[in-house]
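Let's practice the habit of predicting before peeking. Look at the sequence and jot down your guess about where helices and strands might fall. Then scroll down.
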Amino acid sequence: MRPLPIAHIGILVADLVTSRERWSKVFDGVFSPVSRYRPENWSDFGNPEPHLHDARLTFYIGDNPSIEILEFVGNGTHSPTKGEGGHHLSFPPLEDNEARRQELAELGVRIDGEIRHDNRWIFQFAEAGALNNVYTEWVEEHPDHPDVKDDLSPIGRLPDGTKTLFELETILDLPDGRPDSGIVEIGVVVADLDAAKAMWEAVIGYRFIDDGPASAVAGPFAATIRLIRQEPDGSREGLSYATIADADLESTGRRLQASDVPVTSVISADGLLSRLDVDPAYLNGFGIRFRRP
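Done guessing? Here is the structure:
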């Protein structure tokens, strides 16, 4: 398949408000007000009959890729049984989601979560089981994506009519658009590295190259994906961490400590600070790492 950059990383949580506060401290940036994505004809393995899917969510202002935090809902793709933590990777809108659906079917990958509108598949999740407990999200641009504010009122629109989940003044104060998030690597734990490389290459089109005995890395874009062989302790397969390039780790460390964010310093062989690791338990089981470019 034709490779695409990652649009956002989806994180599933039990309490969206508390999680939003913690993620805001770590990123030192704006997360959108809580909003809802409310398709009335959602269908997934948990409930194949079309039904209302009321997903509460928030997005980080940083982009390419961004972070989306979603609250547990339903008994299927976003249910509490999935557990907190890394949930899905989303890619930019496709011109023809039906074609992607057919390509996935040819690989034996089923769709677990979908919305059909105006005879188009405007939203679909490829099953998580195909990619080591990671859903992939494929969307088609459509003006009627069912977004509303948390109180169910219409979300804002920019002067050109574009919908936005952010406060209008937040976006209008960014003359150059949303800034880059700085995320340069996304780690995925896999049980069988060779099998995972083959399947990930087939589904997302990235070419994975071995990088040591226990990992492989790929990505022609700013954010790469690193597949990491599962440790014997049986840590869960799936999205594990994201790494952010940071030229001033010392300042970031002071900021995190001042905000009572639990963080571990990693010192290089020459005695210099090389990385800061936020405790995954603080961020719903997902790790954030800051490292020098």
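How did you do? The chain has a mean pLDDT of 95.
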